[in-house]
Amino acid sequence: MIYTITLNPAVDYQMEFSDPLHSKGVNLADHAYLHAGGKGNNGSMLLSNLGIHSTVLSFLGGFTGSYIKEQIGFYSFIDNQSTKISEPNRINVKVKDGPEYVLNTKGPAIPEEAQQDLLSHLDHLKKEDYVMICGRAANGIDVTFLYEIADRVNEAGAKLIMDTADCRLEDLVYCSPFLIKPNLEELSELLKEEVTMQNCAAAVEKVLQKGTENVLLTMGAQGGYFDGKLGRFVLKSPEVPVISTNGAGDAALAAFIGTYQSSKNAEEALKMSMAAGTASVQTEDIPDYQSIMAAYNEVKISRI
């Protein structure tokens, strides 16, 4: 089983404007979209579109939590075991008038009893399970919560995947994840130094030296780079028109884990990963199986 843990789920509200925003009068959007957001939720919805089962673990509350729960319920291959909280989940706003502006909020405070309830779902993990920790921590969650998740995963011999932007190098040393998936900005934040396409291989090696088994570095239109125990690869995505980059990294990570879980073939999993990321930027929604497979044959993977 794949478990996706969304630390701070949200409703994403995206607005698109054909004219630049102005401070006088009303700015009227040409298009507006609502999404049940959160990195782990996005991953589970992508997995469901691939016909792969997963269990969603997150914290849901209020009218926004009800909306997220409803949207997740439309996906046949998701078992939603989220913990109920009293405060509503956050609403994040994305505004695009040429450039894209991302306006996020902190979200609700997560009480200790809710944290313990989520952890209880990991008490019976099996060796073949994969647990994905996704997103920035919500209010009330500190690093000890991440460590408790890691302890349960590692004691069961399962595989831990971390896609958390506020993770530190010392956290990776403690958690010993099977895989992390940063982008260039997140890897720069992790290492406290600028990471570019030119020096990314050396930067990834620094992370591997801290006990992480594999690193999947996504680089948008430039593709990606993978290094670790499963091999070293350069990843090239096809050039496509971009509608929205929201959730593309989440799709890439979920497709990799879902494919690798069944095939144990890193190259095949990376091709699906890049295909899912490519399909994701061409839609405002979660890409479907057909669009992912349409991109699959255009992805180039080189072992180095």
UniProtKB/TrEMBL annotation:
According to the UniProt entry, its GO molecular function terms are: ATP binding; phosphofructokinase activity; tagatose-6-phosphate kinase activity
Q: Name one GO cellular component term.
A: cytosol
InterPro entries named in the record:
Carboh/pur_kinase_PfkB_CS (IPR002173), PfkB_dom (IPR011611), Ribokinase-like (IPR029056), Tagatose/fructose_Pkinase (IPR017583)
Q: Where is the Carbohydrate kinase PfkB domain?
A: 16-284
- Major enzyme class: transferase
Give the pathway: Carbohydrate metabolism; D-tagatose 6-phosphate degradation; D-glyceraldehyde 3-phosphate and glycerone phosphate from D-tagatose 6-phosphate: step 1/2
A Pfam family cross-referenced in the UniProt record is: PfkB
Q: Which UniProt keywords apply?
A: ATP-binding, Kinase, Lactose metabolism, Nucleotide-binding, Transferase
Q: What is its EC number?
A: 2.7.1.144
Q: Which GO terms describe its biological process?
A: D-tagatose 6-phosphate catabolic process; lactose metabolic process
Task: From the UniProt record, list the coiled-coil ranges.
Answer: none
Source taxon at top rank:
Bacteria
Catalyzed reactions: D-tagatofuranose 6-phosphate + ATP = D-tagatofuranose 1,6-bisphosphate + ADP + H(+)
The UniProt similarity line reads:
Belongs to the carbohydrate kinase pfkB family. Belongs to the carbohydrate kinase PfkB family. LacC subfamily.
Task: List the PANTHER family hit by this protein, alphabetically.
Answer: 1-PHOSPHOFRUCTOKINASE, 1-PHOSPHOFRUCTOKINASE-RELATED
Q: What's the name of the protein? A: Tagatose-6-phosphate kinase
